Amino acid sequence: MSRLDWQRATITAITPETPRVKTFTLRLPQWTPHRAGQHYDLRLTAPDGYQTERSYSIASPPEQTGEIDLTVELIDEGEVSGYLFDGVAVGEQLEVRGPIGGYFVWPAGPPEAPLLLVAGGSGVVPLMAMLRHRQRAGLRNPAVLLFSVRTPDEVIYQRELEALALADPAFTLLLTYTRQIPAGWAGYRRRLDTAMLAEAVGRLPGPPQCYVCGPTGLVESAATLLQAQGLPDETIRTERFGPTGS
Amino acid sequence: MPFVNKGFHAKRPTDGGHKLPPGQYETQDFPVLTAGPTPRIPLVNWEFRLEGLVENPAKWSWNEFNALPQQSFNPDIHCVTKWSKFDTKWRGVSLDTLLEHVQLKPEAQFVMAFSYGGYTTNLPLADLRNGQAFIGLEFEGKPLAAEHGGPARLVVPHLYFWKSAKWVQGLRFMAQNEPGFWEENGYSIYGDPWKEQRYGSDDDADGASTNSFRL
C-alpha cells in the first residue's frame, strides 16, 4: 500500500452546514483518489509539542480532485472540533494523512446493486461521499438514504439531498425527526423501527448492500433491524460516528 | 521548522500516573466500533477452541470455560480510532491459563483469533503470554455486553484494541503470520500504540515488531 505520510493541507473554504457542523475544504499537496466512505486523520500540534489526532470522514467524492471536504461536528468540550470551529481560517494549514479504511467503502460489490444507506446525525458524512460519487460517476443504481435527525436544524446537506431526490428518480430520501418536526411535516417522526426499515428496503427492487453510520445506539438498532428484514450479515456494513468526547 | 497549530493547546490533561500513546486522547466513555451487525450467541451453543498447530486441540463449553480460574485485570486500553480509556475493570481467564491446556507444536509462532460473526485478527504468540492477554467475561462487575464483544472477548491491552477480538470463538496457532480482517483492510499487521502503528504503512519503520511480514 502507499505510504500514509502526514501532509500540510491548506484550508480553501469553510462552509457552515448546520449550527454545529462545518465543512472544511482542504487542498492537498499529495492528493490520492479515495474510495467513498474512507476517512483522513487530522493532527493538531501545540507549541509545547503536545499532539492529538482525530479521524474525519471524507464528504467529497473522488471525482473532486486535488482536495477533500471534511465535515466536522462541534462536540461539547471537543479538543479538536472546538479548535477547528474557533481557531482556524481559510488560508491556514492543517496536518492530515489518508485516505484510510478499506471496509466501509462503496462500491464494495457490483455498483449496479441496490444501495441502502442509514444515517444518524453526522453519520451521514461518509454516506454523502457515496451518494456524491454515485452521482458524479453517472451511476443510477436504486438507492435509499434513511436519515435520522433529532431536529430540523440538524439535517446536514439538506438542500443537496433534496435536490438530488428531485433530480434522480432512482434515489429516495427518507428523513425522520425524532424530537422536533419542521412545520407541515407529514413524514416520519420517530426513531428507526421495523416498519421504517421495511419501507426503506421495500423501496428497492432487490436485496441491497447496506451501510449504516451514526451513534452507537442507532447503528446497533439499525443493524439488528436490517438482519430482521432477512438481509445477510455480510451485506450490512457499519461504522460508528459521532460524539465520543472528540 | 516543526509544524505548530497556532493557538492550539491541550484541553484535557490526562490524570497522573497514566500515559497516553502518541496521538491518542482520553475518554471516560466506552465507544463501540464494529464492522457489521452484533452477533448474538446463545450460551448453550457457545464454545471456545484452541486449534491449529497443537498436539491436542482443546474445546470448552460456556460452563466449562467459566469454571476455569479467573483473575481481575485493570488495563488501560487504546483504540486505533484515537480514544484511550484508563483503568478498565475486567474479570476473565488469562491466556497463560488456557495455554496450559494444550501442547503447542514447536513451529507455532503466530495466532489467528477468530470470532462469531466471522471477524479475525492476527497476533504473535509471544504477545499472548506472561500475563499480557486474557479472555474477558465481565466488565465493570457485569457480564460483558454483546456490543462490547460479550459473552467473551479476547483482550490484549498493549496492542491497539482491534486486536482484542470481540465475540471470540477460538485461537488458531500458525507457523507464519497472516493478516486478519482489519489487517487486510489497511491496518497495521502488529498494532503497537506506543509506536503509533495504526496503518499498514506505519509498519515499514519497524521491521522487528512486524516479524518480517509484509502486506
Instruction: Give the SSE order of chain A as H and E letters.
Output: EEEEEHEEHEHEHEHE
Q: Sum up the overall morphology of chain B in one term.
A: globular
Looking at the chains present, what oligomeric state does this protein adopt?
heterodimer
Count of strand segments of chain B? 13
Q: Unreliable segments of chain A (pLDDT under 50, ≥5 consecutive)?
A: none
Q: Say what the CATH topology of the largest domain in chain A is.
A: Rossmann fold
**CATH domain fold name of chain B:** Sulfite Oxidase, Chain A, domain 2
Question: How much helix, percentage-wise, in residues of chain A?
Answer: 10-25%
Number of beta strands of chain A: 11
Largest interface, chains and sizes: A-B, 51 and 45 residues
Main sheet attributes: strand count, strand direction, barrel closure of chain A? 6 strands, antiparallel
Question: Number of domains in the coordinates of chain B?
Answer: 1
Helix content of chain B: under 10%
Mind telling me the CATH class of the largest domain in chain A? Alpha Beta
Please state the structural category of chain B: mainly beta
Descriptive account of the structure:
- The complex is a heterodimer of chains A (246) and B (215).
- Chain A is an alpha/beta fold.
- Chain A folds into two domains: 94 residues, Elongation Factor Tu (Ef-tu), domain 3; 126 residues, 3-Layer(aba) Sandwich (Rossmann fold).
- Chain A has five helices and eleven strands; from the N terminus they run βββββαββαβαβαβαβ.
- In chain A, 46% of the residues are buried.
- The C terminus of chain B is likely disordered.
- Chain B has a five-stranded mixed sheet with strand order 3-2-13-8-9. In chain B, strands 4, 7, 10, 11 and 12 form a five-stranded antiparallel sheet that branches. Chain B has a three-stranded mixed sheet with strand order 1-6-5, with no helix packed on it.
- Chain B has a single domain, classed as Oxidoreductase, molybdopterin-binding domain (Sulfite Oxidase, Chain A, domain 2, Alpha-Beta Complex), CATH 3.90.420.
- With 215 residues, chain B is mainly beta.
- Chain B is globular and about 60 Å long.
- At the A-B interface, β3, β4, α1, β6 and α5 of A face α3 of B.
